[in-house]
Amino acid sequence: MPSLEFEGKSYEVDEEGYLMDWSVWNQGMASIMAKEDGLELGEEHWDVIKFLREYFEKYQIAPMIKILTKELKKKYGKEKGSTKYLYELYPAGPAKQACRYAGLPKPTGCV
Amino acid sequence: MANKPKPDELLSNINYKPPRTQWTDTPVEFKKGYYCYAGRPNNLEYISLPHGRKWSSTDDDWQLVDNWKEIFLEGMENLLKKFRSFRLFMDICVRCGACADKCHFFIGTGDPKNMPVLRAELLRSIYRRYFTISGKLGKIAGARDLTEDVFKELWYYSYQCTECRRCSVFCPYGIDTAEITMMARELINLLGCCTDWISGPLANCYRTGNHLGLQPHTIKSNFEYMVDDLEEFTGVRVEPTFNRKGAELLFVTPSADFFAEPGMFTCMGYLLLFHKLGLDYTWSTYASEGGNFGLFTSNEMMKRINSKIYAEAKRLGVKWILGGECGHMWRVLHQYMDTMNGPADFLEEPVSPITGTKFENAKSTKMVHITEFTADLIKNGKLKFDKSRNDHIIPTFHDSCNTSRGMGLFEEPRYVINSVCNQFHEMPENTIREQTFCCGSGSGLNAGEIEELRLLGGLPRANAVKYVKEKNGVNMLSCICAIDRAVLPPLVDYWVGDVDVCGVHELVGNALIMEEGEKREIDLRGEPLPGMEEKEEED
């Protein structure tokens, strides 16, 4: 199994680099993952990550994109509540990339 | 896929020239993008599948148990005894090749082992060797020893078949190659080699009642968002109920319908329709999945996943069950449910509470398909539509493999679409109805890691969409399956472009007149309806 090295410790991740245990996550891990993708995490990125983690804690699943955009709109204003905005922040897709940085399991998509 | 090849590039890689060596002497090459990740031990344990372990299909050593061969052959013997069709299909193939070029995976990959006849031969050669007298002659009789390499090859190609059954339509003997794949996968599961994409959703389904793993409060919250949206778009506030005892009907649909776009828009269509009818129905957070990944895992798994539908109907005391737009869900409901988990003698024979129509075809299963239900309402003049609200949509219809070849549902969806849309164009004859081409991702193959395989498998379907787009200006691919709704958007985006995907009841919801004189300026996606504002001014 592949792993993520962080502060001298090794954490188990899946084939695509998602943490196997979401509870061991911390902010530094997100920064490392982003760096590998050539991204620097700004305040806007953290807003999304924060929301994803809060939602996951309550519902044990990542939110559907619709909920994510609606809630971001409510919290941070209209221009931050669109799918387009999310793709600007997370070019590889808000569901996949942002969830990975947030330490959540890989979204299963629709089955 | 990180570095997705361009369509032209992918297309030019398709090579129909078979290798010079015999198929038995051509070793399998595990190509990246063509095999799924291995199932995780915790998920396998959750669904009582044996021999879970951490492994990868690209490892040299698959860590099979010592007596794996014995387990496989004993399992095969059991299946041969249990299912007469299996033995028959193993025996009667004359290798005429009528199926060879009917498979979307063969058309898309050019890999000879994706010809249904040869895919089946992978298992058939083992059958001959161990279960027939002539097989003792070995290679000359088309038999081969079961080795680890033979097992790996069987695994690789068993997950390159979507069990769509298009090949079986053309087989002069009526061999159902999908059933052969089902048997192969059942044997694979005896050795703990289920894929992650199948075992994950199954474990979710055991735990929460649905493949996505939505818990009751999550389902309720998702509905609240949809209800708010509907009110914003239509001015109508619908009030769905959950787990309500004493409701007349239980409604079961795939969980993706209340989780992701564009399935959600279909779900909003159901909600509007039921509200308009004043239907006495309930949703269930327990029977919250119509789909059944057990269908492509094992007979027992399918039965266990399906059992919650009748159990919930009984607990809630409903009269009968209405089912939403889903593909493989309906293969299970239509062909297996009543004998597998029935008889459902605690339910009544389905009668529409609105029209009084008796659904004779559902007498035994007690479960009616939503397009049958809606088509009957329309036929009896119970619904009014403003078709012009769908004028920005020029739809075609993709028959799902399972509703078409698995239950013969051809006319109802088309009747409904034509009743709510002014325009409709069929794709070419050999790509629809019982000859429909698979989306390329059915039977648990909707995994991200095999995107290249799925794009190639979906090529024949996409090609037909491209044809009607260019010929008739089609801009919407409608369908009645949740897997379709999940996988067709990226597929047509890749091969065709500028064509969207929707469920049939999204179109219904758009056109349905809830109240005389109501104004509808936006569709169920929240997009402004072109021309509607001018029209009101004229009025």
Description of the structure:
- The complex is a heterodimer of chains A (111) and B (539).
- Chain A is mostly helical and 111 residues long.
- In chain A, 49% of the residues lie in helices and 7% in strands.
- Chain A has a single domain (3-101), classed as Arc Repressor Mutant, subunit A (Orthogonal Bundle).
- Chain A has a two-stranded antiparallel sheet with strand order 1-2.
- Chain A is globular and about 40 Å long.
- The two termini of chain A are 25 Å apart.
- The longest helix of chain B is centred in the middle third of the chain and has 19 residues, at 216-234.
- The relative contact order of chain B is 0.11.
- The A-B interface holds A 1, 14-16, 59-61, 64-67, 70, 106, 108-111 and B 37, 54, 56, 197, 200-201, 204, 211-215, 217-218, 221-222, 225, 256, 259-261, 263-264, 291, 293, 446, 448-449, 482-483, 485-486.
What descriptive keywords fit this protein?
A: 111 residues, mainly alpha, Arc Repressor Mutant, subunit A, two-stranded antiparallel sheet, 5 helices, 49% helix, 7% strand, B: 539 residues, Fumarate Reductase Iron-sulfur Protein, Chain B, domain 2, Glutathione S-transferase Yfyf (Class Pi), Chain A, domain 2, Rossmann fold, 3 domains, 4-stranded parallel β-sheet, 23 helices
- The number of domains of chain A: 1
Strand content of chain B: under 5%
Main sheet of chain B? Answer: 4 strands, parallel
Structural class of chain A: mainly alpha
Q: What CATH architecture label of the largest domain in chain B applies? A: Up-down Bundle
The sequence of SSEs of chain B as H and E is HHHHHHHHHHHEHEHEHHEHEHHHHEHEHH
Helix content of chain A: 40-55%
- The strand order across the widest sheet of chain A is 1-2
Cα distance spanning the termini of chain A: 25 Å
Sheet with the most strands: spatial strand order of chain B = 2-1-3-4
- Provide the CATH top-level class of the largest domain in chain B: Mainly Alpha
